Amino acid sequence: MRVLIAGGGPAGLTLAACLRDRGIEATVMEKNEKGRTGGYSIGLHVNGWSVAERLGLIETFRAKAMPLGPAHQLDRTGRKLFSYDYRTLAKAADGQMLAILRSDFQHILTQEIERDVDIRYRTTLESVTDDRNGVDVTFSDGRSDRFDLVIGADGYRSHLRAMTFGPFERFLRPLGYRASAWRVQIEKPLEASFVGMMDVDHQGGLYNVGDGTAATLFCWRDKDTGRLGPKERLNVLMERFGDWPDPIHSALRLPIDWDQAFFDTISQIEVPHWSKGRVALLGDAAWCLTFLAGQGTSTAMAGAYILASELARKPFGEAFSAYENRLRPLVTRMQAVSRQIGGHYVPQSKRGMRIQSWVLPVLLSRPLIRLTSARLGAPALDLDTWSG
């Protein structure tokens, strides 16, 4: 069996590794150059952790993990609202939690598969034709090929999904926010793992990478879903956050490499069925939990593992159905969590900020953290019990 994977992000690379381990030939197609991975951070939680263990990569990920420690939330004047500790969250997860730069995550997975898997960079799809016996594809470099299956792991704005399932807008569920993230050199060391600042309709912060840099994350309420150019992006950020004090001020004062940075609307993707003929979707292309759920990468990795496992045991149609039946309940749950968290993450009023300042430290304290995690976190999947 030959499988083309459109997208060389966490979902696509994990799927390639899982297919390789089951003796299935995979080809990965990625539109960006090798190394264009962004500098922002991603979280690895129970289901992603379990997949990383099965791939023999968990210790490599841990060696590159960002430091876990206190987190401080301030108002836009710099006054502390509340604090919590990521080590308490990790302990509640029985240690199965880490944060890692996307660039490091991508590098580790790429190194794992590049000797065994054909990875075609700076390549996109020009055409996809499913004739029920296989899929003929034409690439942007003029080459053509034929595969047994094509998997779309090319993100929230999936080109393959638009080509085979329908236009982007058909599956879009905007949550009413925009977000931006990039890596920045910091002049003064952060005194915590995370320093965030919030105001009504706004949230911004820096995550300590541990090497003199920080990973930023800005989020604000905005119903517009149109795409913006680099100059417009900077204007929006400066308009929203430009007069905030350090560390926000310092992060915005330095140049931003928009080839590496993230800037987009925060929206979920809702596709009625994740497969159509010999084409299936995975990760953000299929569901997009958004960063608000904190489970996007781990759920994509779990989906990749389950999809590969089912394809190794069943005809592709049955495998696609089993993959969706096993994973959709978790996706539905975490999308609901993401919608719920958004209103708390980006406060809607001064009163809401005050309530968060009182309630969140309690919910994230040692006596209640397991209860909070059980309510808002992803339950562990049984990855090795196959459907049917």
TrEMBL record:
Tell me which SUPFAM superfamilies the record gives: FAD/NAD(P)-binding domain
The FAD-binding domain, residue ranges: 2-319
Q: Which Pfam families match?
A: FAD_binding_3
InterPro entries for the chain? FAD-bd, FAD/NAD-bd_sf, FAD_aromatic-hydroxylase
**GO molecular function, a single term:** FAD binding
Taxonomically, the superkingdom here is Bacteria
Its recorded name reads: 2-polyprenyl-6-methoxyphenol hydroxylase
Give the lineage: Bacteria, Pseudomonadati, Pseudomonadota, Alphaproteobacteria, Hyphomicrobiales
